[in-house]
Amino acid sequence: MSSHRAERPHGRRLGRGPLVVLSVTAALGSVTSIGTYAFWNDTATVAGATITSGTLDLKVNDADNLPTWTPFSMTNMAPGESRAAVLTLRNTSPTPFTVAATGSATGADLQPVMVVRVVVGASATVDTSYPRTEACTGGTQVYNAILPAGTPAQVLPAPPVVAPGVNNGAPVDVCVQATLPNTPAVNQNALQGKTWVPTFVFTATQS
Predict the structure, then answer these.
(1) What is the CB-side half-sphere exposure of residue 73 using CA atoms within 13 A?
(2) CA distances (Å), 132 to each of 126, 129, 186, in order?
(3) C-alpha distances in Å from residue 161, one per residue of 18, 99, 112
(4) 137 near 125, Cβ under 8 Å?
(5) pLDDT tens digits for 15-68?
């Protein structure tokens, strides 16, 4: 009886080696792949800012419009008399602006003869006794002529005449004076019982 042991075939054992190596490699690959999704992250959101538009607001004698300018009205005006009154311009908005103005008048008989003065920064005198001769005193005269019946005239020039005072809410006084001349060239009798109605348009423009 032989004492030699049968040797195991070497080929089968060698064949299993690569299988073990491959399986280990695949497992390591899986661990590496999972690790790429394990990093921490965070986000931050910025919101809540608000932007609002501003305003531009011109007030004349503390009103948006003056349908009836009572202080400038006068009845029974005679030749040689004059009427004067002040318009106060104010900027009630945070937006700085400058102001210009135009003027025109209706009244077929009085319109061609009534003389108008516009004075910036002036005050108006008061006269209640005949002949009533009120006037704009002080300030800077910017207009002295007849108001047209058609296309309005520029009675308050564009900036910078009014801009320095109107900006930042500081009021600006604009005095207006109307005079019915007493001159031989005018047929005074034809002017009796007539009506003259002026219209002024003030325009504020962002500066």
Answers:
(1) 7
(2) 8, 5, 20
(3) 99, 8, 28
(4) yes
(5) 555 554 445 444 455 555 555 567 999 999 999 999 999 888 899 999 999 999
Print burial letters for 66-96: b (CB count within 10 Å at least 16), e (below 16): eeeeebbebeebeeebbbbbbbebbbebeee
For 37, half-sphere exposure in the C-beta direction (CA atoms, 13 angstrom radius) is 4
Hey, what's the torsion of the CAs at 105, 109, 112, 113, to 10 degrees?
A: -110
- 62-104 tens-digit pLDDT: 999 999 999 999 999 999 999 999 999 998 888 888 899 999 9
Contact 65, 147 (CB under 8 A): no
What pTM was estimated for this model as a whole? 0.77
pLDDT at 160 over 50: no
Smallest Cα–Cα separation from 68: which of 206, 197, 204? 197
Say whether 106 sits in a helix, a strand or coil. strand
Token representation of residue 171? 């009021």
What are the structural domains, with CATH classification, of the chain?
58-206 (2.60.120)
- What tokens appear for 113 in the block? 């003869």
Cβ atoms < 10 Å from Cβ of 184:
6
Closest CA to 191 of 80, 116, 79: 79
Spatial CA neighbour of 147 closest among 184, 102, 181: 102
